Amino acid sequence: MLRFNARVSRGFTLIELLIVMAILGMLAAIVGPTVLNRFGESQVSAARNQLKAFETALDTHRLDTGKYPNGLDGLLRNTTNNPRWRGPYIKSSELPKDPWGNEYRYRLTGQTYQICSLGANSSEGGEGDDADVCL
Questions:
Q1: Is the pLDDT of residue 56 over 70?
Q2: Which residues span the membrane (predicted)?
Q3: Mean pLDDT score across all residues of the chain
């Protein structure tokens, strides 16, 4: 009767586990920054889309009443008691916040306006994710 000595495997060796951990670490180092960068880009894209929705609402308000509202709350309520007001001009019951959870900045100067999100740092200026997103 022939017998061969077959070694029964009972798990992974320490070397095998270290090699797998090293490979996973390298993948995380390569893929991680790309995924995080895309998250920042998606927030900026969401802010731009919200700003475009505000732009449409503001322009519709101007077409109806003849002027832009003094504040963004004029898109929700007839703050000036204008009889030509046909709002609300946005679907929400309250003003939406930017993707970072802050209020949008609205400035009316004469017949023009500027509306901005201050970015991730919530203050004017900045670069990358901290940069202001404005119309």
A1: yes
A2: 12-36
A3: 82
Residues 60-99: pLDDT tens digits?
999 999 999 999 999 999 988 899 999 899 888 888 898 8
135: which residues sit within 8 A by CB, 6+ positions away?
51, 52, 54, 55, 114, 115, 116
Candidates 57, 40, 123; CA nearest to 95 is: 57
Residues 28 and 45: their CA atoms lie apart, in Å, by 25
**What are the structural domains of the chain?**
39-134 (3.30.700.10)
Q: Would you say 93 and 78 are in contact if contact means Cβ atoms under 8 Å apart? A: no
Measured CA to CA in angstroms, residue 109 lies from 43, 56, 65 at distances of 28, 18, 17
Going from the C-alpha of 94 to that of each of 45, 80, 125, the distances in angstroms are: 21, 18, 27
Measured CA to CA, the distance from residue 86 to residue 70 in angstroms comes to 16
Of the candidates 133, 117, 112, the one whose C-alpha atom is nearest the C-alpha of residue 58 is 112
